[in-house]
Design a protein that fits this description.
There is one protein chain. The chain has 150 residues and is of the alpha/beta class. It has helices at residues 7-14, 18-27, 36-51, 55-60, 62-75, 77-80, 90-103, 107-118, 132-138, and strands spanning 2-5, 31-34, 84-85, 123-125, 141-143. Strands 3-2-1-4-5 form a 5-stranded parallel β-sheet.
């Protein structure tokens, strides 16, 4: 099964969410994928959480961002490397524009779902219920807990 991992799976796993951790453990060994959006969201949330600073404070303190970035590469990036990286191209953006209008998805969520659609992935692993209707209509299985894998 070809599965795209949403950023919230990683973020919630590292926060100790047992559902996210169980889900991540169960899909290891499948064909896993992420894109630039997932990398960016996970990296930003980690840097902000690790530094305990807001966006404006981070913009003013490159040393703090650098230190948090080093910890990200050491602690979190290895988990992201479990997945293959799919690029966002012009066609993915076009599909995402359609998903924004059709389903009311926010841009990053639309880009994630459009990546799944464009690359013909089987499933999207996400804890985000915003995907329910869109995944159902687009023929992509939404995996939000281990039960969905059975």
């Amino acid at each position: 099964m070809k599965i795209f991992l949403d950023s919230n799976i990683f973020i919630e796993h590292f926060k100790g969410n047992k559902n996210a951790s169980s889900l991540l453990e169960r899909v290891i060994g499948e064909e896993l994928y992420i894109n630039e959006v997932v990398y960016s969201e996970v990296a930003y949330i980690f840097i902000r959480t690790f530094s305990e600073k807001s966006y404006p404070d981070l913009k003013k303190n490159r040393e703090l961002v650098s230190a948090a970035g080093k910890k990200f590469v050491e602690l979190i990036y290895p988990a992201l490397k479990l997945a293959n990286f799919l690029e966002i191209n012009r066609e993915v953006v076009s599909i995402s524009n359609n998903f924004i209008q059709k389903y009311g998805l926010l841009p990053n969520d639309a880009l994630i779902l459009a990546t799944c659609k464009h690359y013909e992935l089987d499933a999207l692993a996400s804890l985000d219920t915003d995907y329910e209707e869109a995944c159902r209509n687009e023929g992509i299985t939404l995996i939000s807990d281990v039960e969905n894998l059975r």
